[in-house]
Fold this sequence. Notes:
Blueprint: H1 10-21, E1 27-32, E2 35-44, E3 49-54, H2 56-59, H3 72-95, E4 99-104, H4 109-120
Parallel strand pairs: 3-4
Antiparallel strand pairs: 1-2, 2-3
Helix pairs in contact: 1-4
Amino acid sequence: MARARRADTAPELALRRILHAHRLRYRVGYPVPGAPRRSIDIAFTRARLAIFIDGCYWHGCPQHSTAPKNNAGWWQDKFAANAARDADTNRLLVEKGWTVMRVWEHENPDTVASRVLAALHG
């Protein structure tokens, strides 16, 4: 698990390529205001739009999430803590006037890009 990428994952890069092709400029790994150890995967700072690409395994995707059988209690607590941290991050950003968009890693990047464009352009 230590080898799992935290940033620049294939779904994140695919979405970034599409957004860049639309001549959009964004920040990568932008710090969450008020939470020093958290960062936004893709941030449009002027529009205050935060995009998180959540991994199915770590964030409990309803379609693809699996639970490890070894040390099941520890993993259940870990996944619950991840969900609580995600909710807290969303709350912090919304309180600061940001719009939060969370997408699953398995979602089609073109579809996600369309949603991002719609959010940016009203």
